Amino acid sequence: MRLSTGRHRRTRTLSIAAAVAVASGAGGVCLGLTNDGARAASATVTVSTTAQLEAAVRNAAAGAVIQVRGGTYHPTATLKSTASGTATNRITLQAYGSEKVRIDGSRLPAGSWLAGIHGSYWTVQNLTFRNSPAQGFVVTSSTGGVFRNLVTADNGDTGFTLRGDNTVGNLVQNLDSHGNYDAAGHGQNADGIAVKFGSGTGNRITGARLHDNSDDGLDLWQFSTPITIDHTWAFGNGRNRWNDAAFEGNGNGFKLGGGGVVVAHVVNDDAAWDNTLHGFTENSNTGAIVLNRNTAYANARAGFYFATGKARLARNLAVGNKGGLSELGSSTVSAANNWDGGVSTPAFRSTDATTAYGAREADGALPATTFLTTGSTTIGSTMN
Ligand SMILES: [Ca+2]
Ligand SMILES: [Ca+2]
């Protein structure tokens, strides 16, 4: 008995020493140890080739930090993981320092997603995912994910997706998602961001620019729990930019339901302009959607379309939407919006959107702009 314990102890000591030796010899690779002395896959890994990136994602475990050196990477299979971190021991995938990293899906087999995370407590930041033959970046049934300063562009279906039950407490911050187009569907499905087919509390989208996608800017089809969306811009969606003779893109800025869900999403301080359908729409969601201080400008249909549900709209601003400022039903609550009686419409400082397309701030925040600002402290989006 005593001998056995001693042997175990000696083995453990040796394995720690071996791990330290490996760590010091491997230049930046730091192996973690579990309480029983076993080697864990938690490590800081810096990758500079596609093969290294693929392996690092495939082998990631709680505590892993994957740093990607600047350059363009061409995966030949979906970057996929089913691993989860924990709240205190996350899995991180990020650019190395301030280097520019493009992960390009143009060498993937048809129908492949570029990245698929099926786990919790991931932080993914400062990376671009583009040219996938199908979806760009898909997160399934994640708790506690942080997806920050990402670009999802020119993919063959939706740029960024959260989906599945047990989608809880995720933050999508400062996403740029544009130019996504599903050729096979003639553009009917590729949104900037989709939170679809699932449920779970505490999910937030903030600081996003969702533009020039074939279908909608944002789509919450059949997600049955409230999502919070703030400081997000959706613009130029639904236009046939691909010379598709059978084009079927819809082009709502913010599509806030569909598929029978009744859910009170919270939509504050956002803007929708130049979309080919509505700026903001319930899309048959009859829940008590909350919309405060949003701006809809120059959309092809209604600025705010909430004709059948119980949405509550306050202090929103609609200007120049060809299908009307708003279309509201008898169960909608509308107060202090510029279409309500006695509310004046402040003038825009600028209707030139050029700066809204510009580079983000160093920390990833939306670019400073006067576009669609009014200086009002009571009505419309603050555009920041
Ligand atoms: Ca569609
Ligand atoms: Ca859509």
TrEMBL record:
Keywords: Calcium, Lyase, Metal-binding, Secreted, Signal
Entries under Pfam families matching the protein: Pel9A-like_beta_helix (PF22842)
Predominant localisation class: secreted
GO molecular function, a single term: metal ion binding
Positions of the Pel9A-like right handed beta-helix region domain: 139-299
Keyword Signal: yes
The keyword Calcium is annotated on this UniProt entry: yes
UniProt subcellular location: Secreted
Cofactor(s) the protein requires to work: Ca(2+)
Gene Ontology cellular-component annotations: extracellular region
Family label: Belongs to the polysaccharide lyase 9 family.
Name under which the protein is recorded: Pectate lyase
Species annotation: Streptomyces phaeoluteigriseus
